[in-house]
Amino acid sequence: MPTPRVRTASVVEAKLYPGVGTGQLLARPKLDPPRELIDGVASVAVICAPAGYGKSTMMARWHEVLRSPDVACAWLSVDEEDNDPARFLRHLVAAFQSIRREIGRDVLAQLVGAPTGGIKPLLESLAADLGRVETRTVLFLDDLHSVTHPEVLEIVHWLINYSPRLFQYVLGSRLALNLPLSGLRVRRKLIEIGVRELEFSLDEASQFLAIRLGDSLDPAEVQQLMDKTEGWAAALELVAAALSSQTHRDELIARFTGTDRSMVDYLGEVVLSGLNERMRGFVERIAQFDRVNAALAAKVTGVTDATRLLEELQARNLFLIPLDRHGEWFRFHHLVGHFFREHFRRNEPERCREIQIEGARWFYEQGHVEEAINGAIRARDWEDATEWVAQSVEELIYRRGYHQTLMHWMQELPEEWVDRFPTIRINYAFALAFYPRQAEVEAQLHRLRKILARLEKAPQPDQEAIDGIRSATELQVAISHGLRDEGIAARDAALAWIKRWPDAPAVQKGHISNVLAFGYKTTSDIPAGLAIAAQGRRWHEQGEGHYGLAWGIYVEALLHLKRGAYREARQVCLAGLELIDQHLNGHRAHSSLLHTILAAVAYEFDEADQAQTHIEQSMRSVQDYGPADAMILAYLTQARLKFLSRDYASAYAILHEGQALGARRELQRVVITLATEECTWLGREERYEEAQELAMSRGILLPTTADPVSGLITDKASRVALRINVRKDPAKVLEALEPAIQHSAELGLYHRWAELLGLKAVAYKLNNEMPKALSCMNEALQIAAPRQYLRTYLDESRELGVVLEMMSRAEADYPETMPIVRRLLRSINKTAQATAKVAEVSSSAGAEFGELTRREINILKRLESGMSNKEIAESIFISEGTLRWHLHNIYGKLGAKNRSGALVKARDLRLI
Which residues in 249-261 are b (16+ Cβ under 10 Å) and which e? Predict the structure, then answer.
């Protein structure tokens, strides 16, 4: 069998157009688009009814009517394969891009090659693009009952509740939608259409049958059909098809009974009996596939005039629906297609299976690998299905992020067949690792170990296969340690792997180098980490592993950052972003990790605007699947920028939100680090009791001279101790800081060393040992000056400002550090002047209105729409607690006591 032409990130074009039959449609004015939808008053219309009631036909009619120079319309037909969030997002973006090509480019870039993670970052990116659309837009989503995956439903939920005002949505479903619609209903933004509205009336049924049959039925016969079909459009369509080939119509009308499945089966039999043997065989065979074109039809039926037969089926209105504008691909009406498929399977089960396999192999040869696998699974052709999955799994997982697709297949494929291709289990374990499903990862690794044991007991063991499975399994274990932020375990596993598998493929060695470099970062062995990162870069380049290389660059930048080499970290990140643009289509997930580091660097260099720009680009991805270091840097920098702008409430709320997220993901380092930052700022505000309480609640015990300066808790506690105890016992604080300073110096962690020396200078000052404070500060600045550490001391300006002033007066004593002393003093004075000016301006009536931030303006606009606090928080991806802080600030700035008062003043000021 020839190797398939795998189509990466493919979009099924047929899903982007309304699919309707070619038969003449009956005009039904009562089902024209409602005035609320036409005028843009309603934001969502839901059309819910069982199959065959004409939902898609009506939606297609609305699509045609609404399109105009002032209204753009897009279409997406949903199917079961869209339960993969990556696939659904790709097709959703394609639908939007039919209106405006720029929409969703960043989303698509992130989906290419990314391990699937949370969807909120993607929705934020999509929201920004939708916000730039100036044309009223209506998106039609048909067959939404096909999707049940929580993340896909969350995407739809976000769209219908939080899209910009210019966007409207028409949703079609056979089942009641599992979506929160009550808010829209209360605000009268929702149109709901069900079975009663869609049912044919007696007059409509009479007109419809007359159109289909070319003449009118007796009114009594129409009434008889209405009694049996209850106005069900599909049943009437089937009746018309059956009656058109019957001479004794009255007998047929009298014979059939029942509704739903029995009616479809009966009428289907009648329709099939009206076809000649050749056409009947053709219909039953092509109905085995969800979509068909002339080439596939010819392959599975053996006919040479497939194109003509497809055209004849369309002309006879036998429920064949075109799926694209070119008339290449078609599908049967769902009900009828199901009947044809099952009828053939019951009568000729073996031949039916042979045709399904033949069609699946045709899809495979054409490069439609996913459809080929789905077809093979339907035919229970486990040999082809598992072989094709094994061949394509790395492409799907590592390059396209189709984790959910593999998970869906794994639910169908028999365990014994999957065991024949261990690479499937290896990649499945990898996919699961990016979700909170560690137990399932362990289950897959356990299964792989059982496979290994069986292979080893074989009479003639295949040592190459055994080694390949063992190597990949042990690599996965090491990667899992890294993803769970278990740095020491990751380091030990990586070292053992390298020793055991020196001849492994370069791609695998590149991945293990990332894990080992991360492990060395955890233990502060920076030189060893940088050395293995350099080796890993060579392995990645040798294996053309751009995806793994992007991760390696991120870890290398973290190593520089921990050492305190901020300039080097920035250079590595910028080079990494260039690589991502060139080889990973601007992959948002990877670039966001690098932006967290760039934000931290910019903040330390006192480049607040740059830091804000980077943090905005990083938070879109970090919140859901960023590793621990990215989460820490993102939340720390975001909070520090809020503190810098004197928005203390928001800063603390951000730290709380980060701690909560870290706890949910069981990342202790995130929780402890952000709690330490909170204690630090509480100490700066002299809120020592609150800092003490928080430190104790988080287990950040205060160190004594006997405590070893190692480990996460003691490292963070040494910093918290200063804030809590510095005023009541500075001597004890000095004693506690000394081993921490020595430890940092020994490891060459320059930023931490300089930071702790600055804290020591504060303690000396408070202990009335000013000469020692000046000497200690000079020592700190000798480390800081060449590395451009600024915010470390500017954030301590309340205490260090006096020390720096005294150094400036004794300029001759500190020639080496005087340039940075002057620079720090200029920044401190500038900040003091700005604070005084703000205080002066704020004393004037109404002056604070201009201080509303962009986010606060955005929240005001959502308040105006009548959204609840919960809905607003969900729409901008923050907790309700964080939103309450924002509302508190907004009310204060506007001089209002509540929501209604704030809205009145905001309208008066034309802020909304």
Answer: beebbeebeeeee
pLDDT at 58: 87
- Distance, CA of 89 to CA of 9 (rounded, Å): 11
Asked if the structure places residue 806 within a domain, the reply is yes
Residue where a domain stops, chosen among 824, 840, 856: 840
Contact 89, 107 (CB under 8 A): yes
Specify the DSSP class assigned to residue 34: P
Q: Are residues 748 and 851 in the same domain?
A: no
| 183 shares a domain with 78 | yes
Query: Cα(749)–Cα(709) distance, rounded to whole angstroms?
Result: 14
Cβ atoms within 10 Å, residue 519: 27
Q: Which helix (H) or strand (E) holds 141?
A: strand 136-142
Position 466 in a domain = no
φ and ψ at residue 149, rounded to 5 degrees: -65, 130
Q: Which two tokens stand for residue 279?
A: 């056409």
What's residue 757's pLDDT? 93
| Residue 849 DSSP class | G
**Torsion (CA) 518, 524, 526, 530 in degrees, nearest 10:** -10
Are 244 and 122 within one domain? no
In DSSP notation, 759-814 reads: HHHHHHHHTT-HHHHHHHHHHHHHHHGGGT--HHHHTTHHHHHHHHHHHHHTGGG-
Domain boundary, last residue among 159, 175, 198:
198
Range of the domain at 213: 202-273
State pTM to two decimals. Answer: 0.61
Closest CA to 538 of 526, 552, 559: 552
Residues across the chain: 912
- Residue segments in the chain with a per-residue pLDDT below the cut of 70: 1-10, 19-27, 51, 112-118, 228-230, 245-247, 255-271, 315-319, 333-336, 397-403, 434-436, 585, 619-621, 623-625, 701-726, 833-854, 865, 874-882, 910
Cα 862 off chain centre by: 23
Do 93 and 188 share a structural domain? yes
97 and 19 belong to one structural domain: yes
Q: Which amino acid is at 315?
A: A
- With vertex at residue 703, the alpha carbon angle to CA 701 and CA 709, rounded to the nearest 5 degrees, is 115
CATH no. for residue 891? Answer: 1.10.10.10
Residue 625's pLDDT is 63
CA distance 904 to 887: 15
Gap between the Cα atoms of 51 and 633, Å rounded: 51
CATH code of the domain covering residue 114: 3.40.50.300
| pLDDT at residue 313 in the model | 82
CA-based max dimension of the chain? 116
Same domain, 894 and 806: no
Rounded Cα distance between 59 and 19, Å, is: 10
Distance CA 681, CA 720 (A): 10
How far is Cα 236 from Cα 242, in angstroms, rounded to an integer?
10
Question: 305-330: per-residue pLDDT in tens?
Answer: 999 999 888 766 566 777 777 778 88
Is 386 inside any structural domain? no
Give residue 4's pLDDT.
46
pLDDT, one tens digit per residue, over 111-124 is 764 434 467 778 88
Is residue 776 located within the same domain as residue 854? no
Tell me what pLDDT residue 704 has. 42
Number of compact structural domains in the chain:
4
**Together in a domain, 182 and 207:** no
Closest CA to 589 of 107, 56, 48: 107
Domain membership of residue 689 (yes or no) is no
DSSP, residue by residue, 289-347? SSSB-HHHHHHHH--S-HHHHHHHHHHTT-SEEE-STTS--EEE-HHHHHHHHHHHHHH
